[in-house]
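hi! just following up on the protien thing from before. the input was this:
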Amino acid sequence: MKTICHYISEYMGVLVLLAAVVSLWWPASFAWIDTWVINPTLGVIMFGMGLTLSPHDFRMVMSRPKDIVIGCLAQFTVMPLLALALTWAFSLPKELALGVILVGCCPGGTASNVITFLAKGDLALSVGMTATSTLLAPVLTPLLVWLMAGTMVDVDTVGMLLSIVYVVIAPIVIGLLCQRFLPKITQAIVPYLPALSSIAITLVVCIVVSHNASRLLVGGMIVVLVVVLHNICGLGLGYLIGRVLGLAEAKKKALSIEVGMQNSGLATSLATLHFAAYPLAAIPGAVFSVWHNISGAIAAYFYRKD
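and the predicted 3d structure came back as:
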């Protein structure tokens, strides 16, 4: 079983890509699953993150505040501003622009920790950045979306804040409590978590793509292009910031991956929950979920050769 789980997590990008292609060309395969499933599925991923966090991770945040501050500032400035610039540059329609901005305003993705490990980056910094940006997300994500998209659509900042608390923060806290009071069960579960997260991310992508297949086929290429540019520019600027600041190579890799890889599942969830009147807003998150796992694997391949 552990061998199977290893291959699932190792080839997550391939799994997500294949699932997206199937969902796009045969929507009926997953369209029977209602979109309300997205939130609890994302909660499962966040619960797994809570199980893997340790007191050491939080002590690391306190002992290396400068690195964490640099990382979180980059996270919540580079990607939102890139998103806004791309929506202007490509004159995206309102629904797609909203989706791109949602992706840009979300915290770092949990898959970034796996990619950083494979890239021989600073894993402790990666975990610390992911945890910190996730804890900041209930305030910063709704605020940034309101600032950047408030003129296009009505943004329920309080509702988004509560959604992130329910879907992200609460499962992480429950995971931490399980780790504290049920250590034996936690230790038995942890080896399977990367595979579980990979399957959960794949399911989210399948649901979103299958429910929006017709719309994606019509305007898909422009969405893919914007998402690819958003991600690649994020990876590149994250590394460049680390280089300008004179950070060690391992830290530059971690910063690059953390900035470039977003919690696009959260973006998809928020789009589905709070912007149901704009169904295309969920598409950029779904495409990002597919692409950033592929680009992350490619980045890790080149980074670990250094």
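The chain has a mean pLDDT of 85.
The longest helix spans residues 213-244.
cheers
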